[in-house]
Description:
alpha+beta, about 150 residues, about 40% strand
Amino acid sequence: MKKIILAMLIASATFFVGCRKDGEIINHQPAQSCNSFQAYDSLTSATKLIGTWKLISVYNPWTNTTSLPDRTVLVTFYSDGTFYETENSVVSANGNWHLQDAAGSGLGIITSVPCFRVSGTLSFCSQQALFFTGFIDGPVHLFEKIL
């Protein structure tokens, strides 16, 4: 019975989020559809990260709000340690990436060029990735794997 209620809540939340305008602020945590984000070892995390990811929300801990992106942001990570980010199909960042221990806070992603949306600590849930931009109180970027 609990699973049915949880599934109904997730479906309702997905419907309401899907009807929002880009950039509109919504009141929910960034990981509403996933209750168990996980941190993995560096090899597993690097393997899971390879592919193309789409930004789906940004959580602001200062205001406890989540906003939807006002543009299409895609980030592609390659197995050779390179990446590129596009905003509305225009390359906005490209360079190298690697993972390293984030001083007891899990794994952090390091890029050779500033890439604000994919910096900080990293955790996964199914086909989603959370980038905690500020190790303590910065925004949280939620991406969904699309390729």
